[in-house]
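User: Structure please.
Assistant: Input sequence and predicted structure:
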Amino acid sequence: MKIPLDMGEPLNQPVLRRDWGLFGALTFCFAFGFAVYGGIFQNFIREVLHVSPSQLGVLESLRELPGLLTAPIAGTLVAFAEPRLAGLALLVCALGIGATGMANAYWTLVAISVFWSVGFHLWSSVSPSITLALAGGREGGRHLGRMSAIGSIAVLLALGSARLFKSYLSYQSLFFIAGAMIAAAGVLAFLLSAHAASGRRQPIILRREYSLYYILTFLEGCRRQIFSTFASYVLILVYNTPVQTMLSLAFVNAALGVVAAPTVGRWIDRFGDRRMLTLYYILIAGVFAGYATFKDVRLLYLLFVIDSVLFAFSMGITVFLNRIVQKGDLTPSLAMGTTMNHVAAVIMPVLGGTLWKTMNDYRIPFWIGFGVVFLSLLAVQRIPSPHRSLLTAEQMHDSVR
C-alpha cells in the first residue's frame, strides 16, 4: 500500500511501521518519565519544601507561562520539521525534570519548572500533529487513542516502579530517572523520518474560522488546570493522603486509561466529536460538583479516578480541529491552541489558590470549575456536524498527510 505525502514521495509499509514503532517507543519513554515526576512531585514539594496552597498556585501559574509562548516559539522554529522540533523540546524538558530534585528553595524550584515547561509545551503541541501525519488522515481518533494507551501502559510501569523503589531511592534519584527517560524519548524523536512531519507549515496562525477551537481549548485549559492543580492537593493537604496512596490512585488511572483512551478514540470516530464532547462535559460537571460537596475521602478518590478516565474525551477537540483545518495549518493551529489553553492555565491556579486562602475553603476552585464546564457545554453545541464542515473530505485528507 502506498500513502501519498506532501513532499511528493510514496511511503511504503516498512517505513510506516518503522516510524510508528519509533513514535510509540518515544511516547512510552516520555510518559514513563513524566509519570515518575508527576507521581512524586506534590509530595516532594509538601514534605521537602513545605509549599503552601497559595505558593502552589503561583508555581503552577508561572510554570504554565511558557504555554503562552508556544505559538510564537513554534513559529520561530518553523524551519524545523515536527520530529526535530519534538526532539529538541523533549531534551529541554528532560534536563529540567532531572534537575527538579536538586531544588532546595521555592524560587529555585520555580525557575527549574519554568525551564522544563518550555520543552514540555512544545512537545504537547507537536505530538498530535505527528500522530495525525503518520495516520495519513484516516481514523484520527483511533490513532490518538492508541498513542494515549501506550502512554498509559508506560504510566502503569512508572508508577509501579516509583511505588516499589520509593523506600530505597531519594526524591533526587527518582527525578533523575524521570529526566533520563524523557531524554531517551528526545533521542528517538530525532530518528523519525521526514514522513512523520506534516509538510510545509505556516509560522503563526490565528484564523477566525478556528475561533471555536480556540474557545474550547481556552475553557479546557481552565477546567483542567483547576482539577490538576487542586484535586490532588486537597487529598494531600486536607485529607493527609500519603504518597503511597497517591501513587496507587495514579496507577489505577493509568490502568483504566489503557482501555479508555483507544475505546474513546474509536467512539469519537464513530459517533462524532460533538456528541462525545457533550457527554464529556455533562459527566465532568458531576465530578466538579461532587468534589465540592462530598466529604467522604473515598468518594473523592473515586472522582479523582473518574476525571482521569474522562479526560480521554478531550481528544475530540483535536479531532474537531483536524476536521476543519486547512492544508499546512495543523501544527501551527495546535500550537496556537496550546497558547490559548495556557492563557487560562496562568490565571486559574493563582485565582483558585488565592480564593482558597482568602475564604479558607478548598471548595471554591471546584465551583469555579463547574461554571467553566457549563460554558464548555454551551460552546460544544456550536460544533458543526460533519456534513457542515468547512472543508470537503478530500481537503481534510490532504491537510493531515
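The chain is about 75% helix and 0% strand.
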